[in-house]
Amino acid sequence: MNDLMKIYFAGSICSGRQDSKIYREIISYLKQYGLVLTEHFGDDDVLLDMGGRFSDREIHDKDMAWLLESDVIVAEATIKSLGVGYEIGRAIEHHKKILCLYRPTVNLRMSAMIAGAPGIVLAPYDTLDEAKSHIHKFFSKIK
Amino acid sequence: MNDLMKIYFAGSICSGRQDSKIYREIISYLKQYGLVLTEHFGDDDVLLDMGGRFSDREIHDKDMAWLLESDVIVAEATIKSLGVGYEIGRAIEHHKKILCLYRPTVNLRMSAMIAGAPGIVLAPYDTLDEAKSHIHKFFSKIK
Fold first, then answer.
1. Residue-wise pLDDT tens digits, B77-127
2. How many beta-carbon pairs below 8 A join chains A and B?
3. How far apart are CA B19 and CA B41, in angstroms?
4. CA B97/CA B28 separation, integer angstroms
5. What DSSP designation does A103 have?
6. What whole-number distance in Å separates Cα of residue B91 and Cα of residue B68?
7. Sequence-distant (≥ 6) Cβ neighbours of residue B17 within 8 angstroms
């Protein structure tokens, strides 16, 4: 009874939005594998949430509720981000399946805490096709 | 029977070492409150651990063992770092007491996931004296 799989996409918000186009493309591709609970993380107006529309506590609690509800975490971790690290740390404790995409040409040294964590599938990529191939392989294994 | 309190100091390693002098000063000050399990995070040769001396898995498992053994986490989170975020996320799940120091003049927008997490004492500072004052207040309350 595999209903729609729930996916938490994690990407940098406060640490910089320069990869938001890549996030949108990954999120769009992910939709064939399930419901992306954090689809709006690809939108540039996600930053408006920070500007007073919601308190930090409201943002944290809403995102954590989605994280806990999800079956799978797909992180794009090229931009070094406290929030993405935090989400991965909490997801590990809840035994979530985690795919961690990153571009090693930009993030020259992935954190040893992420690269060395058991249970994270590390997926270095260069082109978007490579990222999609990692995603496809990851979901094929957990279906 | 308060033996020596065990402190896990967290700071950026792979995401940049430009704050290492500040880390050393904080670690040195922390020693009056307990045993700093990760004292070497202030040393610049901590990067040698990454260069092949230990695998990512060994680094992760060693640091996680210290994190779990500690009573208190003191993070310097000015530099955006996946590792520090990860450590804070895992520490929260283990109900550790967490002090999160950062310099808002450098980190202009602290992650909402950190700023909004219940259980983290957020401690923005500018001068080292202010950081010490935050630390003193934090330990005074948990003694």
1. 999 999 999 999 999 999 999 999 999 999 888 999 999 999 999 999 999
2. 147
3. 11
4. 20
5. -
6. 8
7. B44, B47
Share of chain B above pLDDT 90, in %: 80
What A55-61 contacts at long range (C-beta under 8 Å, 24+ apart), as own/partner pairs, is: A55/B116, A56/B112, A56/B115, A56/B116, A57/B116, A57/B118, A58/B116, A59/B112, A59/B113, A59/B116, A60/B112, A60/B113, A60/B115, A60/B116, A60/B117, A60/B118, A61/B116
Query: Distance between CA B48 and CA B54 in Å, rounded?
Result: 9
Q: Do A112 and B56 make contact, defined as CB atoms within 8 angstroms?
A: yes
**Residue position matching structure tokens 């950081």:** B131
| Assessment of whether the complete model's pTM goes beyond 0.90 | yes
d(CA B117, CA A57) in angstroms, rounded, equals 6
Q: Which two tokens stand for residue B33?
A: 């409150």
Cβ-proximal residues to B80 (8 Å cutoff; 6+ apart), any chain: A15, A79, A80, A81, A82, B15, B107, B111
The percentage of residues in chain B with a pLDDT greater than 70, rounded to a whole number, is: 98
Contact A26, A55 (CB under 8 A): no
Contact A124, A104 (CB under 8 A): yes
Listed by number, the residues of chain B in 65-104 with a beta carbon closer than 8 Å to a beta carbon of chain A are 77, 79-94
The residue type of A125 is: Y
Chain B residues in contact with A117 by the CB 8 A cut-off are: 60, 86
Q: Do B114 and A83 touch (CB under 8 A)?
A: yes
- pLDDT of chain A, 143 residues: tens digit per residue: 457 899 999 999 888 889 999 999 999 999 999 999 999 888 888 877 776 789 999 999 999 999 999 999 999 999 999 999 999 999 999 999 999 999 999 988 899 999 999 999 999 999 999 999 999 999 999 87
A39 DSSP assignment: G
